[in-house]
Amino acid sequence: MKRVLIVVLALVAIVFYSSIFVVVEGERGIVLQFGKVKREQGSDLPTVYGPGLHFKVPMIDQVRKLDARVQTLDDQVDRFVTSEKKDLIIDSYVKWRIDNFANYYLATGGGNRLQAESLLRRRINNSLRSEIGSRTIRDIVSGERGDVMESALRGLLESSSELGIKVVDVRIKQINLPTEVSNSIYQRMRAERTAVAREHRSQGREQAEIIKAEADRRVTVMIAEAQRNSRTLRGQGDASAANIYSDAYSADPEFFSFIRSLEAYRKSFEQGGDMMILKPDGDFFRYLKDPSGQPQ
User: Which residues are in the Band domain (predicted)?
Assistant: First the structure.
C-alpha cells in the first residue's frame, strides 16, 4: 500500500510539473492543441501568455515561446535603380517585433526567426525599390531621404501584417554610388579642378608679368631721373670748380700755377714704378729748379 501511494504521488508530481510552464521577461508564449494555436473562448484571437507562471493541459497542450522584443534586421547592401535609371548602393536596417503571435507562428513555419527575416527582407526590398524608383538621385540624397523612409514604413506596415509582424522603423544608413560611377565622377571632378587650377596659374603668371613690367618701368624711370640729377649736379659742381679756379687764378696767377704744378707732380710720381724721360729744362720742371735755372 505504501508503495502504491509513492507511485501515485510521483505520478501526481509529474502531471503537476508537466502542467506548468514559465514565460520569462521579454518573451510571450502560445499554446498549441493538437498542432493548432489555442485561441480564447468565443474569439479568434490567440491565447498569448505573458511573463510569469502558467498552467496547461498535460500531454495535450504544447507551449511555444517567442521573442517579443524589438528585433533589428540589418539588411545587406543592395543595388537600387532611381527614376533616372541610375544605380545606387543603399545600406539600410529595419526595427520590427511580433504583433500577432498566431499569424507569426503559422507564417514562419513554427516561429522560425530566419524564415521571418527572409520574408520581411523581400518586402523591405520591394518597398524601397518602389520608393527609390520614383525619385531622382538629387531627391534621395539632398532632402527626401526622410520621405523615402516614411513611405517605405507605411508600405511595410501593410505588407508585413499578414506575417504577424509590425515594422517599428526603417532607416537608410548609407547611400553610395557604384564603384564605376564613383570613379568616373571623381575623374570628372579632378579634371574640373585641374582646369580651374590651370586657369588660376595662368592668371597668376599674367599678373606676375604685369607687376614685373611695372616694376621694370619704375626702375628705368628712377635710374633715368637719378642719372639726370647726377649730371645736373656734376655740371653744377664743375661750374663751381671752374669759378673757384678762375677766382684763384685771378687773385694770384703765379701761386695758382705753382699749386697746379704740385698736383701734376704728385699725380705723376705717386705710382713710384713709372719711368719718364723728359728734358730737364722743359716747362714741366720749372718749379723743380733753383733760381739759377739748375734742376734741384
Answer: 18-189
